[in-house]
Amino acid sequence: MRSLGIDLLRGLAVMLVLFRHSTFSGLLHEIGWIGVDLFFVLSGFLVSSLVFNEYKATGRFNFKMFFLRRGLKIYPAFYFYLIVSLCVNYFEHGISYEARLIFAEVFFLQSYLPHVWTHTWSLAVEEHFYIALALISSIRISKLNPAKGHRLLWYLGAALLLILVMRIIVCYPKRFQAEFAFFSTHLRMDGILVGVIIAYLKHFTNFLLFFRKHETWFVFLLPLLLWTPFVLPGAGFQMNTYGLTSLNIGFGVLVLFAVDGRFDFRVYSSRIISWSLRSLAFIGIHSYSIYLWHLLVLQECQQIKVEDNTRNFIYLLLAILIGVIFSYTVERPFLKWRELISSKK
Protein backbone atom coordinates (compact mmCIF):
# COMPACT_ATOMS: atom_id res chain seq x y z
CA MET A 1 0.00 0.00 0.00
CA ARG A 2 1.40 3.39 -1.01
CA SER A 3 1.93 6.21 1.47
CA LEU A 4 0.82 9.60 0.18
CA GLY A 5 3.20 11.37 2.54
CA ILE A 6 6.19 9.30 1.44
CA ASP A 7 5.34 9.87 -2.23
CA LEU A 8 5.16 13.62 -1.58
CA LEU A 9 8.61 13.55 0.01
CA ARG A 10 9.95 11.55 -2.92
CA GLY A 11 8.49 14.09 -5.31
CA LEU A 12 10.01 16.93 -3.31
CA ALA A 13 13.40 15.19 -3.31
CA VAL A 14 13.55 14.67 -7.06
CA MET A 15 12.29 18.20 -7.82
CA LEU A 16 15.03 19.63 -5.62
CA VAL A 17 17.61 17.64 -7.59
CA LEU A 18 16.15 18.81 -10.90
CA PHE A 19 16.33 22.45 -9.83
CA ARG A 20 19.88 21.96 -8.54
CA HIS A 21 21.09 20.84 -11.94
CA SER A 22 19.25 23.59 -13.80
CA THR A 23 20.69 27.07 -14.35
CA PHE A 24 17.83 28.73 -12.51
CA SER A 25 19.05 31.19 -9.90
CA GLY A 26 17.49 31.28 -6.48
CA LEU A 27 16.90 29.21 -3.39
CA LEU A 28 15.78 25.96 -5.04
CA HIS A 29 18.95 25.86 -7.10
CA GLU A 30 21.16 26.70 -4.13
CA ILE A 31 19.76 24.05 -1.78
CA GLY A 32 18.66 21.51 -4.41
CA TRP A 33 21.52 19.16 -3.54
CA ILE A 34 19.71 18.22 -0.30
CA GLY A 35 17.22 16.23 -2.39
CA VAL A 36 19.77 13.40 -2.54
CA ASP A 37 20.02 13.29 1.25
CA LEU A 38 16.23 13.22 1.52
CA PHE A 39 16.28 10.24 -0.84
CA PHE A 40 18.80 8.53 1.44
CA VAL A 41 16.58 8.92 4.51
CA LEU A 42 13.55 7.68 2.58
CA SER A 43 15.45 4.67 1.23
CA GLY A 44 16.74 3.76 4.67
CA PHE A 45 13.23 3.92 6.08
CA LEU A 46 11.47 2.07 3.26
CA VAL A 47 13.96 -0.74 2.68
CA SER A 48 14.58 -1.48 6.35
CA SER A 49 10.80 -1.45 6.87
CA LEU A 50 10.57 -4.33 4.41
CA VAL A 51 13.05 -6.30 6.52
CA PHE A 52 11.32 -5.41 9.79
CA ASN A 53 7.88 -6.29 8.40
CA GLU A 54 9.17 -9.67 7.21
CA TYR A 55 10.71 -10.40 10.59
CA LYS A 56 7.51 -9.47 12.43
CA ALA A 57 5.47 -11.71 10.10
CA THR A 58 7.78 -14.73 9.85
CA GLY A 59 10.52 -14.35 12.45
CA ARG A 60 13.21 -14.64 9.78
CA PHE A 61 14.83 -12.92 6.79
CA ASN A 62 14.80 -14.25 3.23
CA PHE A 63 18.14 -13.14 1.77
CA LYS A 64 17.38 -14.44 -1.74
CA MET A 65 13.97 -12.80 -1.95
CA PHE A 66 15.33 -9.51 -0.63
CA PHE A 67 17.92 -9.28 -3.39
CA LEU A 68 15.45 -10.44 -5.99
CA ARG A 69 13.05 -7.66 -5.02
CA ARG A 70 15.77 -5.00 -4.79
CA GLY A 71 17.40 -6.17 -7.99
CA LEU A 72 14.21 -6.03 -10.06
CA LYS A 73 13.56 -2.53 -8.70
CA ILE A 74 17.02 -1.08 -9.30
CA TYR A 75 18.93 -2.96 -12.00
CA PRO A 76 16.69 -3.10 -15.11
CA ALA A 77 15.93 0.62 -15.12
CA PHE A 78 19.52 1.57 -14.32
CA TYR A 79 21.24 -0.67 -16.86
CA PHE A 80 18.74 0.34 -19.55
CA TYR A 81 19.54 3.99 -18.80
CA LEU A 82 23.28 3.30 -18.82
CA ILE A 83 23.17 1.52 -22.20
CA VAL A 84 20.99 4.19 -23.83
CA SER A 85 23.02 7.08 -22.42
CA LEU A 86 26.33 5.56 -23.55
CA CYS A 87 24.90 4.98 -27.02
CA VAL A 88 23.55 8.53 -27.23
CA ASN A 89 26.89 10.00 -26.27
CA TYR A 90 28.82 7.74 -28.65
CA PHE A 91 26.62 7.91 -31.75
CA GLU A 92 25.31 11.47 -31.37
CA HIS A 93 28.22 13.26 -29.75
CA GLY A 94 31.18 11.03 -30.58
CA ILE A 95 32.00 10.57 -26.89
CA SER A 96 33.46 7.27 -25.72
CA TYR A 97 34.48 6.35 -22.19
CA GLU A 98 37.36 4.39 -20.72
CA ALA A 99 36.50 0.88 -19.63
CA ARG A 100 37.31 1.72 -16.00
CA LEU A 101 34.60 4.39 -15.93
CA ILE A 102 32.00 2.01 -17.32
CA PHE A 103 33.22 -0.69 -14.92
CA ALA A 104 32.51 1.60 -11.96
CA GLU A 105 28.99 2.23 -13.24
CA VAL A 106 28.19 -1.42 -13.94
CA PHE A 107 29.32 -2.63 -10.51
CA PHE A 108 27.98 0.31 -8.47
CA LEU A 109 31.36 1.62 -7.39
CA GLN A 110 30.60 5.23 -8.34
CA SER A 111 30.93 6.52 -4.79
CA TYR A 112 34.61 5.50 -4.73
CA LEU A 113 35.85 5.32 -8.33
CA PRO A 114 35.73 7.70 -11.30
CA HIS A 115 32.60 7.03 -13.36
CA VAL A 116 30.52 8.31 -16.28
CA TRP A 117 27.53 10.15 -14.80
CA THR A 118 27.86 12.57 -11.90
CA HIS A 119 24.56 11.62 -10.24
CA THR A 120 24.95 7.85 -10.03
CA TRP A 121 27.23 7.97 -6.97
CA SER A 122 24.07 8.11 -4.83
CA LEU A 123 22.87 4.82 -6.35
CA ALA A 124 26.16 3.24 -5.25
CA VAL A 125 25.66 4.47 -1.68
CA GLU A 126 22.19 2.92 -1.61
CA GLU A 127 23.39 -0.32 -3.20
CA HIS A 128 26.11 -0.68 -0.58
CA PHE A 129 23.46 -0.12 2.08
CA TYR A 130 21.27 -2.89 0.60
CA ILE A 131 24.18 -5.31 0.69
CA ALA A 132 25.15 -4.40 4.27
CA LEU A 133 21.54 -4.59 5.46
CA ALA A 134 21.03 -7.98 3.85
CA LEU A 135 24.23 -9.44 5.31
CA ILE A 136 23.57 -8.10 8.80
CA SER A 137 19.94 -9.24 8.69
CA SER A 138 20.95 -12.72 7.59
CA ILE A 139 23.30 -13.08 10.54
CA ARG A 140 21.61 -11.07 13.31
CA ILE A 141 17.89 -10.97 12.47
CA SER A 142 16.98 -12.74 15.73
CA LYS A 143 18.40 -9.83 17.70
CA LEU A 144 15.46 -7.69 16.60
CA ASN A 145 13.29 -9.25 19.28
CA PRO A 146 12.25 -6.24 21.44
CA ALA A 147 12.15 -8.54 24.47
CA LYS A 148 15.94 -8.74 24.22
CA GLY A 149 16.29 -4.97 24.43
CA HIS A 150 16.91 -2.34 21.80
CA ARG A 151 20.62 -2.92 21.22
CA LEU A 152 20.23 -2.36 17.47
CA LEU A 153 19.00 1.16 18.17
CA TRP A 154 22.12 1.88 20.18
CA TYR A 155 24.33 0.41 17.43
CA LEU A 156 22.64 2.60 14.84
CA GLY A 157 23.09 5.68 17.00
CA ALA A 158 26.76 4.84 17.51
CA ALA A 159 27.21 4.34 13.76
CA LEU A 160 25.61 7.74 13.14
CA LEU A 161 28.07 9.36 15.54
CA LEU A 162 30.99 7.45 14.01
CA ILE A 163 30.15 8.73 10.51
CA LEU A 164 30.08 12.29 11.84
CA VAL A 165 33.50 11.80 13.46
CA MET A 166 34.92 10.34 10.23
CA ARG A 167 33.57 13.29 8.26
CA ILE A 168 35.18 15.75 10.67
CA ILE A 169 38.52 13.92 10.36
CA VAL A 170 38.34 13.92 6.55
CA CYS A 171 37.06 17.49 6.24
CA TYR A 172 39.21 19.20 8.88
CA PRO A 173 42.29 19.63 6.65
CA LYS A 174 40.02 21.38 4.10
CA ARG A 175 38.26 23.61 6.63
CA PHE A 176 39.51 26.82 5.02
CA GLN A 177 38.36 25.85 1.52
CA ALA A 178 35.17 27.53 0.35
CA GLU A 179 33.78 24.34 -1.20
CA PHE A 180 34.73 20.69 -1.41
CA ALA A 181 32.67 17.58 -2.06
CA PHE A 182 32.92 13.93 -1.06
CA PHE A 183 30.81 10.96 -2.09
CA SER A 184 32.29 7.95 -0.28
CA THR A 185 29.62 5.62 1.05
CA HIS A 186 31.04 5.50 4.57
CA LEU A 187 30.87 9.30 4.77
CA ARG A 188 27.44 9.81 3.23
CA MET A 189 25.23 6.97 4.42
CA ASP A 190 24.21 8.55 7.73
CA GLY A 191 20.98 9.71 6.05
CA ILE A 192 20.20 6.07 5.34
CA LEU A 193 20.95 5.18 8.97
CA VAL A 194 18.53 7.88 10.13
CA GLY A 195 15.88 6.26 7.94
CA VAL A 196 16.62 2.85 9.50
CA ILE A 197 16.34 4.35 12.98
CA ILE A 198 12.93 5.86 12.15
CA ALA A 199 11.77 2.51 10.78
CA TYR A 200 12.97 0.71 13.90
CA LEU A 201 11.18 3.19 16.16
CA LYS A 202 7.99 2.67 14.15
CA HIS A 203 8.08 -1.12 14.13
CA PHE A 204 9.56 -2.05 17.51
CA THR A 205 8.76 0.77 19.93
CA ASN A 206 5.87 2.98 20.98
CA PHE A 207 7.64 6.07 19.70
CA LEU A 208 4.84 6.98 17.28
CA LEU A 209 2.46 7.35 20.22
CA PHE A 210 4.98 9.67 21.88
CA PHE A 211 5.36 11.54 18.58
CA ARG A 212 1.61 12.06 18.21
CA LYS A 213 1.27 13.21 21.80
CA HIS A 214 4.08 15.77 21.44
CA GLU A 215 3.65 16.59 17.76
CA THR A 216 3.67 20.35 18.33
CA TRP A 217 7.14 20.15 19.85
CA PHE A 218 8.38 18.27 16.79
CA VAL A 219 6.99 21.02 14.56
CA PHE A 220 9.14 23.53 16.47
CA LEU A 221 12.09 21.13 16.34
CA LEU A 222 12.09 20.92 12.54
CA PRO A 223 13.51 24.43 11.85
CA LEU A 224 16.23 23.80 14.44
CA LEU A 225 17.33 20.74 12.47
CA LEU A 226 16.73 21.86 8.87
CA TRP A 227 18.27 25.34 9.02
CA THR A 228 21.78 24.32 7.97
CA PRO A 229 21.49 24.33 4.13
CA PHE A 230 19.67 27.67 4.24
CA VAL A 231 22.44 29.40 6.21
CA LEU A 232 25.71 27.50 5.84
CA PRO A 233 27.74 27.41 2.59
CA GLY A 234 26.58 24.35 0.65
CA ALA A 235 29.89 22.49 0.52
CA GLY A 236 31.87 24.14 3.30
CA PHE A 237 33.35 22.53 6.39
CA GLN A 238 30.39 23.22 8.69
CA MET A 239 27.79 21.95 6.23
CA ASN A 240 29.85 18.90 5.37
CA THR A 241 30.16 17.88 9.02
CA TYR A 242 27.50 18.63 11.62
CA GLY A 243 25.34 20.37 9.01
CA LEU A 244 24.66 17.10 7.18
CA THR A 245 23.95 15.25 10.40
CA SER A 246 21.44 17.87 11.53
CA LEU A 247 19.81 17.92 8.08
CA ASN A 248 19.41 14.15 7.97
CA ILE A 249 17.86 14.00 11.43
CA GLY A 250 15.46 16.75 10.33
CA PHE A 251 14.51 14.69 7.30
CA GLY A 252 13.90 11.78 9.67
CA VAL A 253 11.36 13.91 11.54
CA LEU A 254 9.72 14.78 8.20
CA VAL A 255 9.40 11.06 7.50
CA LEU A 256 7.71 10.65 10.89
CA PHE A 257 5.15 13.27 9.89
CA ALA A 258 4.63 11.50 6.56
CA VAL A 259 4.17 8.11 8.20
CA ASP A 260 1.70 9.64 10.66
CA GLY A 261 -0.47 10.85 7.76
CA ARG A 262 0.16 14.57 8.22
CA PHE A 263 0.90 15.15 4.52
CA ASP A 264 -2.40 13.81 3.17
CA PHE A 265 -3.39 16.24 0.40
CA ARG A 266 -6.97 14.93 0.44
CA VAL A 267 -7.74 17.06 3.50
CA TYR A 268 -7.33 20.30 1.54
CA SER A 269 -10.49 21.89 0.20
CA SER A 270 -8.55 24.14 -2.18
CA ARG A 271 -8.41 22.52 -5.60
CA ILE A 272 -5.17 24.28 -6.44
CA ILE A 273 -3.38 23.01 -3.34
CA SER A 274 -4.83 19.52 -3.70
CA TRP A 275 -3.92 19.33 -7.40
CA SER A 276 -0.39 20.61 -6.74
CA LEU A 277 0.24 18.07 -4.00
CA ARG A 278 -1.35 15.31 -6.07
CA SER A 279 0.99 16.19 -8.95
CA LEU A 280 4.00 16.18 -6.62
CA ALA A 281 2.98 12.75 -5.28
CA PHE A 282 2.65 11.47 -8.87
CA ILE A 283 6.18 12.69 -9.59
CA GLY A 284 7.29 10.96 -6.39
CA ILE A 285 5.88 7.64 -7.56
CA HIS A 286 8.09 7.86 -10.66
CA SER A 287 11.03 9.59 -8.97
CA TYR A 288 13.57 6.80 -9.54
CA SER A 289 13.27 6.90 -13.32
CA ILE A 290 13.07 10.70 -13.34
CA TYR A 291 16.27 10.83 -11.30
CA LEU A 292 18.01 8.37 -13.62
CA TRP A 293 17.22 10.24 -16.83
CA HIS A 294 17.37 13.89 -15.81
CA LEU A 295 21.05 14.57 -16.54
CA LEU A 296 20.89 13.01 -20.01
CA VAL A 297 17.82 15.15 -20.68
CA LEU A 298 19.67 18.21 -19.40
CA GLN A 299 22.65 17.43 -21.62
CA GLU A 300 20.44 17.24 -24.70
CA CYS A 301 18.48 20.36 -23.76
CA GLN A 302 21.70 22.33 -23.64
CA GLN A 303 21.82 21.96 -27.41
CA ILE A 304 18.61 23.98 -27.76
CA LYS A 305 19.34 27.59 -28.72
CA VAL A 306 16.83 29.45 -26.60
CA GLU A 307 16.91 31.79 -23.61
CA ASP A 308 18.19 30.15 -20.41
CA ASN A 309 14.94 30.18 -18.44
CA THR A 310 13.05 28.75 -21.41
CA ARG A 311 15.62 25.99 -21.70
CA ASN A 312 15.28 25.29 -17.99
CA PHE A 313 11.52 24.90 -18.25
CA ILE A 314 11.92 22.59 -21.23
CA TYR A 315 14.45 20.55 -19.26
CA LEU A 316 12.18 20.24 -16.23
CA LEU A 317 9.17 19.20 -18.28
CA LEU A 318 11.10 16.73 -20.44
CA ALA A 319 12.95 15.21 -17.46
CA ILE A 320 9.64 14.51 -15.75
CA LEU A 321 7.92 13.33 -18.95
CA ILE A 322 10.73 11.01 -20.08
CA GLY A 323 11.20 9.70 -16.56
CA VAL A 324 7.50 8.87 -16.30
CA ILE A 325 7.52 7.20 -19.73
CA PHE A 326 10.43 4.95 -18.81
CA SER A 327 8.93 4.32 -15.40
CA TYR A 328 5.87 2.84 -17.11
CA THR A 329 7.70 1.07 -19.94
CA VAL A 330 10.85 -0.23 -18.20
CA GLU A 331 10.55 0.01 -14.42
CA ARG A 332 6.89 -1.01 -13.97
CA PRO A 333 6.95 -4.28 -15.98
CA PHE A 334 9.79 -5.60 -13.83
CA LEU A 335 7.99 -4.52 -10.67
CA LYS A 336 4.91 -6.44 -11.79
CA TRP A 337 7.11 -9.47 -12.49
CA ARG A 338 8.59 -9.04 -9.02
CA GLU A 339 5.17 -9.11 -7.40
CA LEU A 340 4.22 -12.16 -9.44
CA ILE A 341 7.34 -14.02 -8.28
CA SER A 342 6.81 -12.91 -4.67
CA SER A 343 3.20 -14.14 -4.68
CA LYS A 344 4.35 -17.64 -5.64
CA LYS A 345 6.85 -17.90 -2.78
User: Distance between the terminal alpha carbons, to the nearest Å?
Assistant: 19 Å
Shape: globular
Task: Estimate percent helicity.
Answer: over 70%
The major sheet is characterized as: none
Keywords:
75% helix; mainly alpha; 16 helices; globular
Detailed description of the structure:
With 345 residues, this protein is mainly α. It has one domain (4-344). It has 16 helices and no strands. α1 (4-20) crosses α14 (271-285). It starts with a helix and ends with a helix. The mean pLDDT is 92.
Give a concise summary.
The chain is an all-alpha fold. The chain has helices spanning 4-20, 27-31, 34-58, 63-93, 99-106, 121-140, 151-171, 185-188, 190-204, 207-213, 215-226, 228-231, 237-259, 271-285, 287-301, 308-344.
Layout of secondary structure:
Layout (H helix, E strand, L loop, with lengths): L3 H17 L6 H5 L2 H25 L4 H31 L5 H8 L14 H20 L10 H21 L13 H4 L1 H15 L2 H7 L1 H12 L1 H4 L5 H23 L11 H15 L1 H15 L6 H37 L1
Helix pairs in contact: 1-3, 1-13, 1-14, 1-15, 3-6, 3-9, 3-13, 4-6, 4-15, 4-16, 7-9, 7-13, 9-13, 11-13, 15-16
